Amino acid sequence: MSPGGLCDAPHMAVAPRVKPLDLFTPEEWTRISARSSWRGIWMVAHAWGVILAAGALFVAFPNPLTYVLAVMLIGARQLGLAILMHEAAHGGLHPKLKVNDWLGEWLCAAPVGASLASYRPYHLSHHKYAQQAEDPDLVLSAPFPTTRRSLRRKMIRDLTGQTFFKQRFGPLLGKMKGAKTTGQPKGAIFAGEIARQRPFLLWNLGILVVLSALGLWWAWPALWIVPMATWFPLVTRLRNIAEHALVAKDEPDPFRHARTTNANWIERALIAPYYVNFHAEHHMFMHTPCWNLPLAHRVLEKKGLTQGMLTAPGYLSVLKAASSKPVAA
């Protein structure tokens, strides 16, 4: 029998679940599931504060070292905004849904070119079918393990902006190429893409206007676009690998639908902000606010239940395992 209290069972399309009160006392679950009217707002403010502080560091002390540090910190907090959008998809940023969705859409998703409205149904489907055949995110974990050479190529594409360009402009270019087949005018396709990207474009225009007014117009490409095109895609990939790579398909045990990675403070600053490393707990208790996931982990640990979970001592160990496939002779 698994730690989740499930016996071996035939494949089911919907991922098996745990009942929190089978694991926690009512008092423990009340603490773990408690929402907050200020923690989510604070975390959004924190993400933007780190972005501003990292940019100011380079402006005040311009040199290669501070620039690389700024790019890494800003790119990680751009990922942080995407993670907080993810939190909003679960209703965790604020108890009031309208406030939650406004924060998630306009202060988290739009600045990095995402959409909470589009992301939420997709992501909840991922939770419903986690690691089952119907999981829309299964394609992200399917290629692993891969070879070190393959992983290195992917990371180089991330750091050189190739992944950013493909994700940002690939769909538009594909539609343009298919315009003759569909009969749709290219102008209409382009206008539709502009409309879809309007919140992202407005945010970038606003950032550029404010920076230009401060005499720092160059900071928009150097300290916003470059991190978004380099470090942000890389750490997004690393996060995806850590969460679900090498996790068994059709896994019947809800304790093993995702991996929790024990991130140190450097990893939390540059790769895994806002408790995203507690991914096994997140999948078991998906509506628990992210700041309570460490508490859930500690309580499970005291009960001896974390031994059956998928865990890793750090991101490097996951990458080593995920790139352990031998090179074909």
TrEMBL record:
CDD domains in alphabetical order: Rhizobitoxine-FADS-like
GO BP, sorted A to Z: lipid biosynthetic process
Boundaries of every Fatty acid desaturase domain copy: 63-303
Molecular functions per Gene Ontology: oxidoreductase activity, acting on paired donors, with oxidation of a pair of donors resulting in the reduction of molecular oxygen to two molecules of water
Keywords annotated in UniProt: Membrane, Transmembrane, Transmembrane helix
Residue stretches spanning the membrane: 41-61, 200-220
InterPro entries, sorted: FA_desaturase_dom, Fatty_acid_desaturase
Highest taxon of source: Bacteria
GO cellular component, one term: membrane
Residues spanning the signal sequence: none
PANTHER family with a match to the protein in the record: DELTA(5) FATTY ACID DESATURASE C-RELATED, FATTY ACID DESATURASE 2
Protein name: Fatty acid desaturase domain-containing protein
Species whose genome carries this gene: Caulobacter vibrioides (strain ATCC 19089 / CIP 103742 / CB 15)
